[in-house]
Amino acid sequence: MDGFYKSTYEEDGKKYVLVSTQFEEVATRRAFPCFDEPSFKATFDVSISHSTDYTVLANTIIKDEGVGDDGLTLTQFETTPKMSTYLVAFVVSKFEARGESPGKDYIFKVYSRPEATKFMTVPTTYGTTLIDLLSSWTGINYVDLGNRQAYQVAIPDFAAGAMENWGLITFRHSAEVDLLDEAEKTSHSAKQRIITVVAHELSHQWFGDYVTLDWWSDTWLNEGFATYFEFHIPSETLPSSVPLSVEQSKINTPREDSSKFDDISYDKGGSIVRMMRYILGEQSIKDGLREYLHSNHHSNTNPSQLLSSLNQVAGGLDFVKFMENWIYQAGINCASVGRCDIIAYVNPSSADDVSFKLPNSTCNSDYISKQNFTLDNSAFSNISDTGVLHVDILKGVLIWDWACKLGQEDCINYAITTFEEYKNTNSYLSETIATNSSIRKQDASYVFRAVYSNNDVGVDVALTFLENNLQKITETYKGMSALSNLINGIADRVKTEDQINRVS
Ligand SMILES: [Zn+2]
Questions:
Q1: For the segment 423-437, what is each residue's pLDDT rounded down to a tens digit?
Q2: How far is the CA of 195 from the centre of ligand 1 (A)?
Q3: What secondary structure does DSSP assign to 47-77, as a single string?
Q4: Does 223 carry a binding-site annotation?
Q5: Which of 96, 329, 418, 491 would suit a FRET pair with 424, their CA atoms being 20 to 30 Å apart?
Q6: Would residue 405 count as lying in a domain?
């Protein structure tokens, strides 16, 4: 199945023969003499002589058809754009086409054996949408790449998954998995797989065909981009997302029932529950859900009962309104994260202008420049308050982390001062030898390791502590092995002559 090869398939108990091509990477030379390397680009004028009852396809649309000297039909194709040899393709078969592209300046069609043409819902529905999205994303219309033809062909006996021949993309057909679907029977995930493969191959028309890698050493220039776009482009507008809940009147038949046992109900459903837990907090959501179970016992519910129970524990937030669009609105939401004063905020946005409310979206200002970023010192006192919620501490750590990474002066000064204090007081290490310490003796070495293994300064801190408290450490640790392990651990990390002298 390399080069120009013969293939067969059966329909109605009869065997049919077709010929097709697979040239990537080095099989074009097996079909015709050429400099078969990607950097040698040329235009190709393809003519195929064939029996009248066969359909012939090549990279470009048919220019002319006539009768050759041998009495066979001679089909001539338009000159191809300038391209690499591995992208040349032709197919001679009894295939039939489906797919229309009215209003487009290119011709989109899907070809397969006649019996399989009823399985083309996915590629014919989404093919032109994907091409238009790629045209818009790259700023180069498909037709401006240099080819008016965008054909997809399902080939039996095809070794590769699919091949991005310019204008004549070939797909594996044997299992009917990569291009063809049975509308009623094909699973949602199998349809997604088809869209992904079609998007991948169409992306190659820009990344690979129009602009081609110089040599196979840089294959990622083709495949890396096609793989990126196979996920990115379908996610732009295709209906891979549906609402979590729909109106009850829309679900009537058993088939409609089972359609709701999809990834959205399972995965998005689980994510939404998790999101609600983080918005409300562990205790509140427990309280709310206990109320929900209690007040609806032996009964039936819809989301409004759930939200009404959770609303009671939402601490003033209109939880019903807040969750409405998460539950009843389709769309793929993405969030841009920025900062406003010291509060991190999340701005909801989505490709289809669907907005999703987010708990911290209180600040609507655009990204605030580093210079304008001021850190309110009161944030620190809040964080050191042992009474604050765990989540506030985490949020505080995050704010510190961002502020210091962004070079916020207050934060850096605070970090330096705190670190100096820490070095001088050694309160963390002192805890290991304190009477009634909360650190268990067997864990003391972990505390030391945490101090000396993080950075060079830590070695000095641990050494100083060891020198100043040797007696107490020996008494506390009792056995010598714990002490020798501790000294060995520090000794492994000493770097300066001074440190060596101190250890010895
Ligand atoms: Zn590819």
A1: 666 677 887 788 777
A2: 14
A3: EEEE-TTSEEEESS-EEEEEE-TTSSEEEEE
A4: yes
A5: 491
A6: no
